[in-house]
Amino acid sequence: MxxxxxxxxxxEYSGLMGVLFGIALTVLTLNLYVQSNAIYMVKxxxxxxGYVKGIDEVNKAVERIKQTxxxxxxxxxxxxxxxxxxxxxxxxxxxxxRLRKELxxxxxxxxxxxxxxxxxxxxxxxDYELLVETLKKRxxxxxxxxxxxxxxxxxxxxxxxxxxxxxxxxxxEDVDEVAEKIIKGKxxxxxxxxxxxxxxxxISSKFGLSIxxxxxxxxxxxxxxxKPGQEIKIVKNEPYFNVEMDLNVVTNEEVPYEVKEVxxxxxxxxxxxxxxxxxxxxxxVTKNIKVVNGNVVDETLIAxxxxxxxKNKVVVIGTKQSNIVASGMFIxxxxxxxxxxxxxxxxxxxEGIDIAAPTGTPIHAADAGRVVFAGWMSxxxxxxxxxxxNGYRTVYGHASKLYVxxxxxxxxxxxxxxxxxxxxxTGPHLHFEIRKNGVPQNPIKYIK
Length: 448
Description:
By secondary structure, the chain is an alpha+beta fold. It has helices at residues 2-37, 55-69, 92-102, 125-139, 175-184, 200-206, 211-217; strands at residues 39-44, 47-53, 77-82, 89-90, 107-114, 117-122, 146-156, 160-167, 186-193, 231-238, 243-255, 259-268, 272-276, 281-292, 295-308, 313-320, 337-340, 343-345, 348-350, 353-356, 362-364, 369-377, 381-389, 392-402, 409-410, 415-419, 429-436, 439-441.
């Protein structure tokens, strides 16, 4: 009987111990769960640095600092459990960076290089990914009425590499500042030796610089007396790397109105009278665009949906014979300064003048005539050619927009395009030519 009682007691004791162990395990599990999900405020000498979720995240950051700088530097660090953490929580890497900055320790940074050239010092790999997204947004061309932009591809030509190094916190750069630096490019200095026949305007155009930029770095240079063999310092921005993008862009664009011609034998030949003024229509246009460093190098029309019909312009054209003949006088087609003159340039003939002006600056017909070409021309980019009769033709190259089409008759001073940098171009400008029987003429001699 006594043995039986002892056996029962052993069972009761074992069961009790099992229950107690289960309770202890549950409490431990709950405690670990609470610790891993609790919100902690990290402080240095009372200054709040941020919230962290889970004590493990805090410990990871603290251990990394101990490994590189010892535990003594952490003597002023406080970690307080919060009853109600309402702020944004940081991960271990983010709180480590804040601790290192506040304690004036070196911080781990991502060094971005193109080949052997250091481009940026960023706080994390995430900052590099943010930099790429920022460059995408900054390099997308701006259109007046953009509906949507789809990025088909984004490519950096050069070899980008990363290394992680501990650096002073002050050296870490802001993503937006790095993006601005990359877009602006690095300053490169070189010496140009003047060749026979060079002019300062041709040299400035060759390097995509203004006359003022050249004189800034060459204060003793006499612009009117350069001679072969003379050295000119050239300082210009060049990209750290080339960014190529392929985009599909949907925009609302104006549809140029057409000109309807009505002939009247009672009006002298060559004279035009506007009977009805035209107005442009509107179309939803989808284009594929190739962009290099923010400059459009090619575009292809994919689709166009008419939203608003253009209203045609009606012009009465005189057919009555008279003694009036074309004067061969033309107006200046756009405002801006002449950045390159007519003549030989880089060993070949520059068949017109370049008028530098901001993108979108209006381009006007230099004289009345018929548009014989409006579209993309190799080298010229978006281009218009107008026949003025008597053997005269004018050419308007590198436009950003064209407002007239082939076959349209235009009046002197009529808006026909906008300044751009399409085709073979170093910056926004109008390339303007005057041709007489197919032979290029110096426009300066004709513009009045």
